[in-house]
Amino acid sequence: MFESMYAGLDEAALLAAIEQAARDEAQAGARKMAAIAELVDITVAEDDERGGWAFDPWKNATAQLGAVLSMGKRRASGQMWIAVALRYRLPKVAELYLQGRLNARLVSEITWRTQLVADDVVAAVDAAIATQTHRWGALSDAKLTASIDAVIERHDPDAVRRAREVIHARDVRIGAHDDPSATATIWGQLMAGDAAALEQLIAGMVRGVCAEDPRSAGERRSDAMGAFIQGNEHLQCRCGSPTCVAAGPAKSRVVIQVIADAAAVDAAQDLIADQDRQHSEAVQCQPDSGIALLPGAQVLPVAALAEAIRGGAAITELWVPGPDPELQYRPSAKLAAFVRARDLFCRFPGCDVPAERCDIDHVVPYPYGPTHASNLNCKCRDHHLAKTFWEGWHDQQLPDGTVIWTAPSGQCFTTMPGSRLYFPSWNITTAELPPVDRPPPDPGRTAKMPRRRRSRAAENAARIKAEREANAVLRALEELPVVEQQPDYGSDPPPF
To answer: Which residue has better confidence, 237 or 173?
Structure first.
């Protein structure tokens, strides 16, 4: 049906169909936002006593929305902010959205850039933006930002986002969105003295390898930086000679667990052997076999895995639990490692928090439920709090790692272990546990919920106040006159 839906239409008719579909898409998005705003209105109340909880009503609504839309909690919260802004602060913009005259990208930018506008002028800003948007047409991101800011500047100059968008002069970043999976970009600025010291250190490490090392100068510098980060004082030579003084063993002060199947490890070791045998980086690498994952389920190519093994990475087989539970509450290191490798992410529907940053939770609370892989799964702290303290959230786990969530609304959501996506042949099914009784209700349970230091409303007000004050300072600096001082040439001006 897909391929025949618009068969037979000419170019003009197809473009008209695309235009109408875009309008329909915008209208559907606006209706979704209206429903989200209503959800927030009926579930998040300022006088709710749970507003002081670490997992407050806003986070509960975020969890339910994230489960329905299969998205992470930060993105779900962002959708809620947009919806609330359209309903309470920008009704004229919302009306245009409902008519399909604004797209989701434009609405998102407008709601973000008007977030700091004072309540007493936001209606004027809403009306001005709604009046002018039809004249903006197709704009680049930079021009769109400038157009929205120009409206805000006329009504509330301190609400133009200056402070957050200032690029600080000194920073170091690791990883860019377009990096290949085998390498990561590092860029930034250092103090001049630190940069000079680092340059000398890297140069010294590069000079330490022998002349038979097959790498280029650039590859040596890159590997030397990696060796330094790992805590090595020298760069390991790749000449392959057993008598080379620079070919000593590498070490590392950082432990990064990589999950790899046997095929990937074998392919990496074969690649190392081929390179050592030929003493040349021009060796024809075999196609990638198997798969290896860095924390966060980032795929590590076989060539990069080979570099890690060559650099001294230890290979240990992942322990798989048997039928017997552990006797203590906290799982052992080997049991925790299995659960994290099996789950890879938080097991809440739509959540993308890596397992390394999650709690390991007993599905049936200990000691009613055993410390066993079939009763343990990974939950980020927010979703762990939701399951533990918020009435209506609970999960059920099957021996194959499947988790079935029930929301306070009664809806059910099923999540599968992340390892199924990457290692489908890995048997992660563990023992089927005998039925256990859940603990009786604890009337004092909610008293144990961690508390917020201040309410969400107070935090938002403080953040907006601080950013507006910073914007005002930057605006004042921008408005200072520029004084050009003429150089003093004494009695003899230069010839012109």
So the answer is: 237
Structure tokens at 368: 């009613």
Is 276 exposed, middle or buried (CB count within 10 Å of its CB: 0-12, 13-18, 19+)?
A: middle
Is residue 184 included in any domain, yes or no? Answer: no
Instruction: Give the pLDDT of residue 479.
Output: 76
Q: Is residue 494 part of a domain?
A: no
Structural domain contains residue 18 = yes
95 and 43 share a domain? Answer: yes
Do both 395 and 285 map to the same domain?
Answer: no
Percent of the chain with pLDDT over 90: 53
Contact 305, 314 (CB under 8 A): no
Distance CA 434, CA 368 (A): 11
Give the whole-angstrom CA distance, residue 65 versus residue 288.
39
Question: Quick one: tokens of 242?
Answer: 């057993």
Pair 26, 161 in one domain? yes
Report pLDDT for 282: 44
Specify if 320 maps to a domain: no
Q: How many structural domains is the chain composed of?
A: 4
pTM over 0.85: no
Return the closest-CA partner of residue 77 out of 47, 119, 36, 122.
36
Query: Residue 408 has what DSSP assignment?
Result: T
Determine the structural domain holding residue 299 and report its residue range: 259-310
- The per-residue pLDDT for range 72-88, each reduced to its tens digit, is 999 999 999 999 999 99
Percent of the chain with pLDDT over 70: 87
Confidence at residue 393, expressed as pLDDT on a 0 to 100 scale = 96
**Residue type present at position 414:** T
The residue among 315, 299, 311 whose CA lies nearest residue 265 is 315
Is 391:377 a contact under the CB 8 Å cutoff? no
CA angle 438, 444, 448 (to 5 degrees): 95
Domain termination site, one of 388, 421, 439: 439
Instruction: Give the CA diameter of the chain.
Output: 100
